[in-house]
Design goal:
By secondary structure, this protein is an alpha+beta fold. It contains ten helices and 13 strands. A six-stranded antiparallel sheet has the order 5-4-3-8-7-6. Strands 10-9-13-12-11 form a five-stranded antiparallel sheet. Helix 1 packs antiparallel against helix 9. The longest helix has 55 residues.
């Protein structure tokens, strides 16, 4: 075969190979690289602007949803109390009722995070018309006669409660629902691992043919209420066991009086001393430094306007039954909060404030710094991917050219093998004549 024909075949095969394989592969790689760049830019932009108007609205919607969940939870507890009034007034019936109310809780125990099942109610009791307890289940166990007390005297109750007198004055089907009650946990105790353990006392009168016959009570374990906010971080879709207040990124709950009843730092939760006296909240009239030295930092959002007037306006709007979002200053930090009212109403929690409200808090400065760091990480990863793709393209093209050369050589040999020997000899003869000329 003439040499020029071989060259033409080699060129033709190489051109076809290049057009059909190398160019499409290169274009595909460039498109992938371009896609990675665009995805990286988009992710970076979204991360940096995470707290834009749309994101703030999303946090607000989530606050509303959580507040509605809390309201539904409390309505179910009302139903439980009404059911309790028609149960047989026996130890066995009360014990079974409490046992069947178990719900999961995440707790920190012995330095470890554990999931446990605990009854919704720490206590259930039937009190006769004189105020004497006749049946009582405490922490799932039936109380013996020596543990039964006369609750008509608040001083005789562990938390100095006057629920009997209040419930006695209610009509049939009306329910008394107390504020959160519990012994205060100061900062030192909290840092050593102690957590607030309180109740919401629910009571309703019962009647027989002679009239008022007594009161049925339930003591709701407030941990089951607090879990609606304790396990939520506003900027995360999932749940956490315990949010960190230091991050400024957490959810909290406030009652209709403005007191904190759920917060990552339990020493902000309203509580009482052993004698029943409420631990005072920090106000402009109390010394915040003095309270902090004692580790007593109870917060009432209606009383801390001296820190930032916006805090008081947030509490006021929530008490008016309105959801919203604002930025404010607290402890030298710039914060964003979305808030929503808990639409649970009763004699003790009238409209418009209802039970209270839920707040979702984000430290704006810290989160912006985190967003910028995340953006840089995304950009770095995108560059790394592009470098990898370019390297793969170069290696792939080199390998393809080598494969092409091998294929062309094989094709040429196949063609030569198919040409008759006489034709090959004639070809050599013509080639020799050309050389002589």
């Amino acid at each position: 075969m003439p040499k020029i024909n071989k060259d033409k075949q080699l060129f033709t095969v190489g051109r076809v190979f290049f057009l059909l394989i190398v160019i499409p592969l290169s274009l595909m790689a460039l498109l992938i690289a371009d896609g990675i760049i665009k995805v990286g830019d988009t992710a970076r932009e979204r991360t940096v602007t995470i707290l834009d108007q749309k994101s703030q609205e999303e946090i607000k919607v989530r606050a509303v949803n959580v507040a509605d969940e809390v309201a539904d939870f409390l309505k179910d507890r009302e139903k439980d109390l009404l059911i309790a009034t028609i149960l047989p007034a026996t130890d066995a019936a009360y014990k079974e009722f409490v046992a069947k109310s178990e719900n999961p809780l995440w707790v920190k125990k012995d330095g470890k995070i554990q999931k446990i099942y605990e009854p919704l109610y720490k206590e259930m009791a039937f009190v006769d018309k004189s105020g004497q307890e006749r049946i009582k289940v405490v922490d799932g166990k039936i109380a013996n006669v020596s543990q039964l007390i006369n609750v008509s005297n608040p001083a005789a109750t562990p938390l100095k409660e006057d629920y009997f007198t209040k419930a006695k004055a209610y009509g049939k089907g009306d329910l008394y629902i107390s504020p959160v009650k519990g012994l205060y946990v100061n900062k030192t105790e909290f840092e050593k691992g102690k957590r607030f353990s309180g109740i919401i006392r629910m009571a309703t009168p019962v009647f027989d043919q002679q009239g008022f016959a007594g009161v049925v009570t339930l003591a709701l374990d407030v941990r089951h209420l607090a879990k609606f906010t304790d396990n939520i971080v506003p900027t995360q879709s999932g749940y956490v066991v315990e949010a960190e207040a230091a991050s400024g990124n957490y959810t909290f709950m406030v009652d209709n009086r403005g007191f904190i009843l759920s917060h990552p730092n339990d020493y902000h939760i309203a509580g009482q001393y052993a004698d029943g006296t409420p631990v005072p909240a920090i106000t402009d009239k109390t010394s915040a430094e003095s309270m902090a030295q004692k580790g007593e930092e109870v917060l009432n959002l209606n009383q801390i306007g001296f820190m930032d007037p916006t805090l008081q306006s947030i509490a006021r709007e929530a008490a008016d039954g309105r959801a919203g979002m604002k930025e404010y200053q607290f402890a030298g930090r710039k914060e964003f909060v979305a808030y929503a009212p808990i639409k649970f109403y009763s004699t003790d929690y009238p409209k418009p404030a209802g039970f209270g409200w839920v707040g979702m808090n984000v430290d704006v400065v810290k989160f912006s710094a985190y967003a910028s760091a995340t953006a840089k990480k995304i950009q770095s990863e995108a560059k790394s991917w592009i470098t990898t793709i370019i390297t793969i393209i170069i290696i792939s093209v080199i390998l393809l050219f080598l494969i092409m050369a091998i294929l062309v050589r094989g094709i040429t040999r196949s063609i030569e093998a198919e040409i008759p020997l006489e034709a090959q000899e004639a070809s050599k003869f013509y080639d020799d004549e050309d050389d002589d000329k």
